[in-house]
Amino acid sequence: MIPPRALAEAQDLAARLPPLLVAAERVAASLAGGTHGRRRPGPGETFWQYRRAQPGDSAAAIDWRRSARGNGLYLRETEWSATQSFWLWSDTSGSMDWRSGPDLPEKRDRALLMSLALAALLLRLGERVAVLGTSEAPATGPGSLPRLAAELAARSGSTIPRPARPPRHGEVVLVSDFLMPPEQVSAQVSALAALGNGGHLLQVLDPAEETLPYAGRVRFIDTEDDSEVLARRAEDWRDDYARRLAQHRDALAAIAAAHGWSFATHRTDHPPQMALLALQVRLARPRSRR
Amino acid sequence: MLGFASPWILAALATLPALWLLLRLLPPAPRQVRFPALRLLHGLTPRRDSAAHIPWWLLALRLALLTLLILGAAGPSLHPAPSPHGQTPLLLVVDDSWAAARDWPQRRQAMTEVVTEAARRQRPLLLLTTARPPDGGAVAVQGPLSAGAMQSRLAALAPKPWPSDRVAARQAVAAMDHDRVTEVIWIADGLDSPDHAGSQLAGALQSLGGGVTVLDGQSGRSLSLLNDGGGEQPMVAVRSLPSATPQRLAIRGLDAAGQALAREEATIPAGADQAAITLRLPVELRNRLAWLDIEDEPSAAATLLLDESWKRRIVGLVDEDGSTTPLLAPFYYVERALAPFAELGRGDIPTLLDRRPDALILADRPLNESESDALARWVRDGGALIRFAGPRLAAAIPAGGQLDSAMPMRLRPGGRSLGGAMSWTTPQGLARSFPTDTPLSDLKAPDDVKVLSQVLAEPDPGLNDKVWAHLADGTPLITADRMGRGWVVLVHVTANTTWSNLPLSGLFPDLLRRLVALGAGGRAASGTLAAGEVLDGFGLRHPAGGIVQSLPAEPAQRRPSPETPPGLYGPEGSRQAFNLGPLLPPPAALELPAGIQRQPLESADSPRDLSGLAFAAALLLVLADLLLTARLRGAALAGLVLLAMVSGQARAADDFALKAALSTRLAFVHTGDGFVDGKARSGLTALSRVVGERSTARLDAPMAVDLERDPILFFPIVYWPLSLDQKPPSAAAIAKLNAYMRSGGMLVLDTGAQQGGADTTDFAPLIQGLAIPPLSSVTGDHVLTRAFYLLKQLPGRWDGAVWVVDNGGGDDRDGVSPVVVGANDWIGAWATDAQGRPSFPCVPGGERQRELAWRFGVNLVMYALTGNYKADQVHLPAILERLGQ
After folding, report:
1. Cα distance from A255 to chain B (closest Cα, Å)?
2. In angstroms, rounded to a whole number, what is the distance separating the alpha carbons of residues B725 and B673?
3. Selection from B328, B483, B474 nearest residue B404 by Cα
4. What is the rounded distance in angstroms from the CA atom of residue B467 to the CA atom of residue B477?
């Protein structure tokens, strides 16, 4: 279970971000009411136009106040507003359960915090949010945040999930360290993108994973499968490691770009607001210009 | 001069080359690091291999380390003592009398050295202490003992507040087995009794055959009073062994709380064995004296307890009608003259005699038969009866002139008057000087005293000896006579200004003080005296216990012993001091027979054990090794942490004090209950912020104090949220809290009791021993309700009564309560989460009640910081009312 403190922290973080107007695309796919006006009459709350009543209109739909001012009967029409669905996923695998120093948060906590903050932000705007890989339909309203938080924290797969009912025409936000092979990421991303989903990849890394600050004789042990590598002089590996990490990131960025998705990185020693603001800017941009 | 206790251990040095080989073969172990991005590391190749060989300096370090360990284990020592006797038993004779207390630490050090040295040689040890043990047992040889048992007995050994019993010690030595040669080391106090028991003991020790070494320290000095109770200034004699150089010392007079009231430096000249010292201090301070001691000499003989006889005199004024008319009442001037120096009581004669006064004053009052008999009895027991004449007394003089039995001499009927309208005579002044050899002889006679009327003494052969003051024409003005152990004094004029202006002169108070000081013996308690407080060997006072018995009534039977140690005896209120110093014989140096080696306590070339040094050096090398290997592994952190652990303990305390003292902060008691501590920290943080917002007081972040470890005197308020999970604090912690409250701190006790349904009595073990005076509930006119905001209630999460110390401003804290007690859980009301939202609801008043709780918090801080500064607000209604009129 996620502790209430993390939830409060995420809400606090979301409260400090400027309101986000998500550039919604293809919202026609969703019939649920929302905030994105479709510039044509339909179910919604904002006034759109008055039009003359035509045979077949229900008498209950007539706006009597307007009708009394003129000849003939008028109907009040509202703008058809729709909503955008978001699918969030935050990696909770063993490699995320790690930090290099006691002053830093674990990567998993940071990823969870950012996902939750994003979810709180979106829910506040009336968007519909779900956790990728669950069978729950996207939910709306700030009240569903605790349920989302529990689902986000409970997920324990080490790879991007393959949901039985994959989202369509939604926005997918994947937060992970993406240290798995790029081919694996590529397969998942293309499967999701094929269904018309836009998306964002956010790579959360510990500073030690970027700089490899170790020196001397060091035995590195993997956090997931306990395999080992012995470095006789770890400081000699620093440059090679940095090169490999850059290659890995390039590969991830290429995957994202190929499907019109975005890719960004975040270090746990940086404040989460920076990455979240950047993500927000990208969410507000139409998909074609990402 | 280096020797080894166990030289065979040095053979282990031969293993060093093997270690050298072993160390060369083993590379340092790698550091284990968990790392998620391991996939990226796979297949990376190092450019060059790490040092598989251990560097030469590390090898040298480790070899040195091992060498030191082996050397340390072999027990090296500098100046090893020669051991001609091998395994012969060693008898350690220790004088643990009062005279050894002066330099007891050095003596203990010497004993420890002797025992350590004997333990190294595994000699059997015997112990003989020459003063009787406090459990009343006999002086006896203990042992043979192991070195450990010996050390623990020596650790428990303390000087006794009575002299040593060398006769019994000699008998104990004589009873020993003389077949075995036993070496003797005698740590002597350097004094001998008049019957030379010390020299005889030395002879008995010599007969054991192993040689006797006497270690001499400094002998104690003793104090005794030269003037007994009621004298003007305490005059003490310091007695000491004659020394070749002058001895400088200081005598202190202390009050019951141990505060020095007077200090007088003195010198005992070279070769002299005593000096007399007078402590000069005002009478008011003299009344507070509780004991005298020699500065920096903790010993029972150097501590002189003073009892009730040093306190203010009790003087009775016989005054049945209780007239207090200013200027005319008989005792108007007497009262003013004596009030600063004496305890005055008024009443009729039987009532006053019940109070056992030192002196009684009668003004113009003839006595009937029974009264004069009672008074005469009392005077014979040591009282001082001071009578003033007057018209009624003059009228009562019978033909024979013998008025009653409580009169110094016969009087002539009628008296005389001088300088009246119908008289040719002029008023008489005082004679130029007072007769010699009387208590009044050193007083100065003022010129302006005029006597208009007086009663006259019947001329008598013995009269001249009884006169203490004359008029200018030679007629007696003050006559006195000794009766038993007391005095009867007659002043031939009135105590008011009817007959003379003597009561108006500056002479009058001096005169009365001298007369009142005559009475001393009136209050001697009779019978045996139960023990109250007794002194230990260092002159510290303890409640009597154990085998301590009552003090015999007869002073000649009083001896300092385990049954009757020096101390205060008698019932509370009239304690009698039983001091060691006056009972000691004049100090005599210990003379030793020939053939006894005598040396001072501290000798320069005593054996010094070096193994501790070797082990300490080895430990340092271990630390260096840790640091270096940690560096080899890429980080110096582990070694640094270890170093910090060793050296950081003391610094942590300093840091705490520094942090607490540099800015004003609130503090709360660390209860060990995580929930309560978190609540307290959050509540006090929020309160500090609110106080800063609403007033000019700036409070830094609150600190948690551990009662057992941290000093608390820096904080204006210590908030103690009582928690059932807390362990009761130790006695030291309670003493710390008491000292904190005494020195002006404020302790807030919050039971929060309504919360868990806990009963207030559940907290009793926590605050057991806390010196909390009687409490009363806070009413509307207490300063706490006015210190910043005007408040009617002082609610927290709950709204209940608050209790403070009710003292009406009568003590040295200016009426500021050192403790605030309540069950309102204020920290619960103040506590907020990180976003400033309240953590707990307030019952029953909701948010309004929380605001009131804030206001109470601000008032509480203001009350702690400014004390009774706002107390006049309490009187504001009265002031306004007065202004309105």
Report:
1. 19
2. 6
3. B483
4. 8
- To the nearest 10°, report the CA torsion of B391, B393, B398, B400: -110
Per-residue pLDDT of B504-524, as tens digits, reads 998 898 888 888 877 764 444
> In this predicted model, what pLDDT tens digit does every residue of B356-383 receive, in sequence order?
788 899 988 888 888 888 888 888 888 8
Residue in chain B closest to A239 (alpha carbons) equals B44
Which residues on adjacent β-strands are paired with residue B576? B569
Q: Which two tokens stand for residue A195?
A: 């269904």
Torsion angle (degrees, nearest 10) of CA B805, B810, B811, B816:
40
Instruction: Answer whether 0.90 is exceeded by the pTM.
Output: no
3-state helix, strand, coil in chain B (%, to 5): 30, 20, 45
Beta strands in B279-405 (DSSP E): 289-294, 303-305, 313-318, 342-347, 359-363, 384-388
pLDDT tens string for chain A (290 positions)?
455 667 777 777 766 655 544 543 443 334 444 556 556 676 667 788 888 888 888 888 889 998 999 888 998 888 767 677 888 888 888 888 888 888 888 888 888 888 888 888 888 777 888 888 777 778 877 778 888 888 887 765 667 777 767 777 788 899 988 888 888 889 888 888 888 888 899 999 999 888 888 887 788 888 877 788 888 778 888 888 999 999 999 999 999 988 888 899 999 898 888 888 888 888 777 665 55
Contact B36 A98 (CB under 8 A): yes
The phi and psi torsions of B489 (rounded to 5 degrees) equal: -125, 135
- Provide the residue type at B359 as one letter: A
Q: What is the DSSP letter of B176?
A: S
Contact B341, B359 (CB under 8 A): no
Quick check: B677 and B671 in contact, CB under 8 A? yes
Q: Are residues A221 and B635, on separate chains, in Cβ contact within 8 Å?
A: no
In DSSP terms, B588 is beta-bridged to B192
* Domain extent listing, chain A: 4-29+83-289, 34-82
- Inspect the interface and report whether the beta carbons of A223 and B635 lie closer than 8 Å: no
User: With an 8 Å Cβ cutoff, are B49 and A209 in contact?
Assistant: no
Cα separation, B885 vs B878, in Å, equals 11
Cα B675 to its chain centre, rounded Å, is 41
- Is residue B495 within 8 Å of residue B328, measured between CB atoms? no
Q: For chain B, list the domains and their CATH numbers.
A: 6-24+52-76+618-654 (no CATH), 90-219+587-609 (3.40.50.410), 227-310 (2.60.40), 318-523 (3.40.50.880), 663-877 (3.40.50.12140)
Q: Which residues of A touch B (CB under 8 A)?
A: 8, 12, 94-96, 98, 107, 177, 179, 181, 206, 208-209, 214-224, 227, 229-237, 240-241, 244-245, 248
What distance in Å separates residue B647's CA from the closest CA in chain A?
23
For chains A and B, count residue pairs whose Cβ atoms are closer than 8 Å. 110
At B362, list the tokens. Answer: 């009668």
Dihedral angle over CA of A142, A147, A150, A151, nearest 10: -110
CB B600 within 8 A of CB B187: no
- Cβ neighbors of A220 (< 8 A, separation 6 or more) are A228, A229, A230, A231, B33, B34, B35, B38, B41
Dist. CA A219–CA B34, nearest whole Å: 8
Q: Which residues of B touch A208 (CB under 8 A)?
A: 35
Which of these, B514, B471, B523, lies nearest to B492 by C-alpha position? B471
Contacts of A238 in chain B (CB under 8 A): none
Among A181, A218, A220, the residue with its CB nearest the CB of B634 is A218
Structure tokens at B228: 């007994």
CATH fold of A4-29+83-289 reads Rossmann fold (3.40.50)
**ipTM greater than 0.85, yes or no?**
no
DSSP reduced 3-state for B363: strand
H or E element in which residue B669 lies: strand B665-669
Looking at residue B22, its amino acid is L
